[in-house]
Amino acid sequence: MKLWEKGINPEPAIIEFTAGKDRKTDLALTKWDIIGSMAHVIMLQDVGLISDGEKNDLLKALHSLFVIDNQGHLVIEKDMEDIHSQIEKEMSSILGRPVRKFIPAVHEMTRCWLTSACTQGRRLTVCLS
């Protein structure tokens, strides 16, 4: 599932050039994607867009994905575009309903990762090579 597809099949070399090792990088950032999603869910409930029950269900599902990721068992399936798409699919499977509106944008995940790396004095390197 590629969110940007427009019904045409580009050359594989184009996909490799534009995506490169994105999957490897995405997997390194999965923890932060899940944490950003948790914060997003809390915000949605705080502003009244979802109920307490919905918030609790979503947080439980996200926590289960967090555990799976910590165990090294969360993978990006071949037909998924990125970790965001994979988390959406996993959440929909766990909850039995679509969850796209609950998954925040990539900048939230990146901000969580950068904040953690900076506050812990770590080198800001990810699998970019």
Jot down its keywords.
129 residues; mainly alpha; Fumarase C, Chain B, domain 1; 0% strand; disordered C terminus
Characterise this structure.
This protein has 129 residues and is mainly alpha-helical. Helices cover 60% and strands 0% of the residues. The C terminus is likely disordered.
Roughly how many Å is the radius of gyration? 16 Å
Got a strand count? Answer: 0
Strand content: under 5%
Question: What's the total helix number?
Answer: 6
Output the CATH homologous superfamily.
Answer: Fumarase/aspartase (N-terminal domain)
CATH topology: Fumarase C, Chain B, domain 1
**Overall average pLDDT:** 76
Q: Helices and strands, in N-to-C order?
A: HHHHHH
Distance between the termini: 25 Å
- Mass-distribution shape: globular
- Helix/sheet category: mainly alpha
| CATH class identity | Mainly Alpha
- List the domain count as a whole number: 1
**Main sheet summary:** none
From the 3D coordinates, which CATH architecture would you assign?
A: Orthogonal Bundle
Secondary structure elements and pairings:
Elements: H1 12-19, H2 22-28, H3 30-46, H4 52-70, H5 83-95, H6 106-119
Task: Give a short summary of the structure.
With 129 residues, this protein is an all-alpha fold. Helices cover 60% and strands 0% of the residues.
